[in-house]
Amino acid sequence: MNKANFDLNRKVAIITGASSGIGVAISEQMAGAGAKVALVGRSNSRLQEVNDRITEAGGTAITIITALDESDAIDTIVNSTLKAFGRIDILVNSAGIYLESAFTECPTEHLTEQWDINVRVPFELSRAVVSHMSSGSSIIFISSIAARCGFATTSAYSATKAAVNALTRVMAVELAPKGINVNAVAPGWIATPMNEALREDQSVIEAAIGVIPAGRLGTPEDVAPAVVYLASEGAQYVQGTVLEVGGGYPNIA
Question: Which one is catalytic: 98, 157, 229, 249?
């Protein structure tokens, strides 16, 4: 195995949702693989903590404080990254929101809000960075196994993640001739702040573990290596895939 295939040295990565959960793990592991990282999020204090850990470990990072639904967010992200590093090689669309409600009771606003952050912003940000990318670059979406599994009370969320999967496949077809890889990672039952309230019910955890062949909930650190791989030269012939990281669920249930 050529270890250089998985080295992100000289690469510049933008990571949205970098202040929490999976986004934090991706940021730290990408920096550990050698990438210079632009950390995007709303919380100055949490982003600074991630930045500090990266720099203390010898990595390079900047923080970009913005709410993704702000009108100038995309310009701010792209321009700040180019000003700091002069290039963009990797985009990880990790930011997302989850609003739980039964389908018959789901307010239209829940669909609109989740569509905005989970689909529209990644669509527009990806479109904005493509012109700054060269052959060998990567765009990676964080999807969810909810895109193909029917979980109660997730109708709007699941619809947005199914859209992300479709977008991944279409973008891969269109951008492959430019040498830009487009893929997605679909986490399964991962313990993150997004599902912290659900995990307060021990019966929910027990039910989840009962159908996960790996026998435990996942962690953000389980997901991040898949993203690093898809951003690396080792994945240069991987296009339009949705890589599930879920401990075997729901393939074996």
Answer: 157
